[in-house]
Amino acid sequence: MEENFEHQVYDKNTIEFVTVANEFCILLESSGKISKMDFIDRSQKLLPLLYLKASLLPKVENQFDGEIEKFVGEGDWEYIRTAVIEKMGANDEYLEVFDDGMRDSDEPIVASISENFADIYQDLKDFLTSYRIASVDIMNDALWDLNNNFYQYWGQSVVNSLRAIHYLLAHPEKMEDDLNDQASSSIDRLDMSQSIFSQRQQQWGNEEE
Question: How many angstroms separate the CA atoms of 149 and 113, rounded?
Answer without folding.
Answer: 18
